[in-house]
Amino acid sequence: MSLSFHNSSATKVNPSPDKAKKKKQPPFYNTLIKQVRLWHWVSAALFCVAMIFFAATGFMLNHDDGIFAPHMTTTQRRANIPPQLLASLQQPLKEMSLSKPIKDNGDVDWSRLTANEIHQALPDDVSKWLKENNFPVRKQATWTKDFVYFMAPKLGGREKLLIERDNGHLHYEYTSRGWIGFADDLHRGSGTNAVWKLFMDLLAIACLVFSISGLWLLQVHAKKRPSTWPLVIAGVVIPIIIIVMIFHS
Prior knowledge:
By secondary structure, the chain is an alpha+beta fold. It is about 45% helix and about 15% strand. The protein has helices at about 15-25, 25-60, 85-90, 125-130, 180-190, 195-220, 230-245, and strands at about 75-80, 120, 140-145, 145-155, 155-165, 170-175. A 6-stranded antiparallel sheet has the order 1-6-5-4-3-2. A hairpin with a 3-residue loop joins strand 3 and strand 4. The radius of gyration is 33 Å and the shape is elongated.
């Protein structure tokens, strides 16, 4: 009986070209990839819920005359400005043009449409009375020969206030657009404050970071996914084609 012994030393396997190439990447490149992935993750983690909200409300705005039309309710109030305040409302206005917006040749001079209006602050005593009686006050109002009025957005609705200058009759109207109008106004920043608009700016920056870092990561993995760049090109070309069709429709 003969026994045979074989050399059991391990055979070295040469690394594949892809792995060898991957090892040769400079340290800076690997650090950059890690940072891009980090910022891609951070921007998504911080603002993913806000992105969903703005995407959903954007869809609602596209259909605000159909399935997502806001439910309108109107509240009206009327009052009379005290007689002692009428003098403030009847103060002389700045010089205004009384020219008609229609020219002699029948064309419209759009600059004349607002020529009969002056924008200036309400008198202090009138503003104080409005606040005391729970009416809205704005820094600037529109003055005409017969009226003082302003229209202002309010989160989820719109409010209007008009005062007749000769007799002090006040007309106030608030139109609520319901929860749909509330969500739409948040999307547009209408009737909100500076803090919400700052949040919208930060969200816009986060979307840029998310998208740009996403493009970078796409090119990193594009070799393993041949459909990457055709899909990216399609995402650019399709909106351009739609815009061209709009101009030629």
